[in-house]
Amino acid sequence: MTPTEAKTGGNSVPIALDEIIALCKRRGFVFPSSEIYGGIGSTYDYGHYGVLLRNNVKGEWWREMLSDHEEIVAIDSAVIQHPRVWEASGHLSGFTDPLIDCRTCKLRFRADMLEDAQCGRKPSKHPGEYSECDLTEARQFNLMFETHVGPVKDSASVAYLRPETAQGIFINFKNVLQFARRKPPFGIAQIGKSFRNEITTGNFIFRTREFEQMEMEYFVPPDEAPKWHEYWLDERMRWYTDLGIRPDRLRLREHGPEELSHYSSATSDIEYLFPMGWSELEGIANRGDFDLRQHAKFSGEKLEYFDPDTDEAYVPHVIEPAAGVDRAMLAFIVDAYDIEEVEGRKRTVLRLHPRLSPVKAAVLPLVSKDGMPERARAIYEELRGKVAAEYDEGGSIGRRYRRQDEIGTPWGITVDGQTADDDTVTLRDRDSLEQIRVPVEGIADRLAAKLGEPWGSPKLG
Ligand code: GAP
């Protein structure tokens, strides 16, 4: 594109998930896993820009948890834990989905989601709608992945891949209390992989069998639990909007009594308006003292806080904001995805919050001659230690801008003929398409300052 390009306005047409999937593959964010072997259902690999975006999402979560809250500490617990953990937590008996099999088409469906399921016959209908459908009664199916620890494969060696990161926090409550010298309210935060043998997958990286969670358990005096629940509902909504999600695409939905998990006395979901409709992005639960009491009972350890002010011990209650890295990433991409027409040509652009963008600045020589590549390369070398930058000299400048637009790079730095005369470059803004001339000197500080500024989605108008 040229310096004269003009923004003609964002689109307001609904975004299809297929467009997002295509962009993610085309630009190296997400690939179907094991693709050369035909793929394995609902499992994805993250490419270079996907890794960078995920790291930024996780970095922003850690920033909120640790930099903004001195009472929160970090932990990284094991994926495979003692099997008694899952007995105590209730996952062995209760982490199940009701399943129905069709004896005719041999497919398996979630009993509570038959209306969303497609039968195996053609044309596809809902299970049970053909006269040939032969459905079994619903049976409970445990979602945990089972494995064996050690060389002997018997019942004594059975272990599980964790279905949530939360339990790794509860079983370390005593360690943290002792070594981090915290008193309620205090939190323990963790990011890590979780595994669930989900029956109903699909919708790209929204629901997969292997995914990453960002969970924080906030231990509070029992009578303060409702107050802290409200607090974390507000904080977590603000986290998403501060990172550019449009407020009208987010909502809080309180769970009804029949929907609450076995451990929860109150849960609200933060939902996002995904292409497939309003769906859960994050759950914020009041878990009461369920987990600490269960682990105390099963392990025989005292899991309490002794309050020196009152000379009494009590079991703290827990508020848990539980988010998914993959779902958050999908929501950020969907919210940022935009198509507009610029000078008669379609432009696809990811209007990501600059702090989330995988690459902050692309350094581009206008043409591959007259010393421009050498100068651009030198600027890039200087910049890359300070902000995530990329150097690109392949293809026309318009194509290179479009590539950077699609990965969400907020700034383009172009070295042109004038650079050799006065050591200035053009700084192109991804969203406004404005290009201004700036001195090369101080450009890293200029970008670092911009990254610290508040940002709102240009799609809000
Ligand atoms: N410790 C509570 C807990 O795990 P959850 O609602 O089951 O609660 C929390 O999970 C978050 O983890 C969800 O809001 C979602 O973002 C993410 N998540 C859960 N299952 C997932 C799956 N199969 N694929 C991708 N993300 C998932």
Q: What can you tell me about this protein's structure?
A:
- This protein is of the alpha+beta class and 461 residues long.
- 29% of the residues lie in helices and 27% in strands.
- The protein contains 13 helices and 23 strands.
- α2 packs across α9 (325-336).
- The model is unreliable at 1-11 (pLDDT under 50).
- Glycyl-adenosine-5'-phosphate binds at residues 164, 166, 196, 198, 207-208, 211, 213, 215, 280-283, 320, 322-324, 326-327.
Q: Report the C-alpha radius of gyration, rounded.
A: 26 Å
Low-pLDDT segments, ≥5 res:
1-11
Bound molecules: glycyl-adenosine-5'-phosphate
* Biggest beta sheet attributes: 7 strands, mixed
Number of helices: 13
Output the structural class: alpha+beta
Topology:
Elements: H1 17-26, E1 30-32, E2 44-46, H2 48-67, E3 72-74, H3 83-89, H4 91-94, E4 96-101, E5 108-110, E6 139-142, E7 146-148, E8 158-160, H5 166-170, H6 173-180, E9 186-195, E10 210-220, H7 225-242, E11 250-254, E12 266-274, E13 277-288, H8 290-299, E14 305-307, E15 312-314, E16 317-324, H9 325-336, E17 337-342, E18 345-350, E19 361-365, H10 372-383, E20 389-391, H11 397-407, E21 411-415, H12 417-422, E22 424-429, E23 435-439, H13 443-451
Parallel strand pairs: 3-9, 19-20, 19-21
Antiparallel strand pairs: 1-2, 4-5, 4-6, 7-8, 9-10, 10-16, 11-12, 12-13, 13-16, 14-15, 17-18, 21-22, 22-23
Helix pairs in contact: 2-9, 3-8
Bound molecules: glycyl-adenosine-5'-phosphate (GAP).
Residues 164, 166, 196, 198, 207-208, 211, 213, 215, 280-283, 320, 322-324, 326-327 line the site of glycyl-adenosine-5'-phosphate.
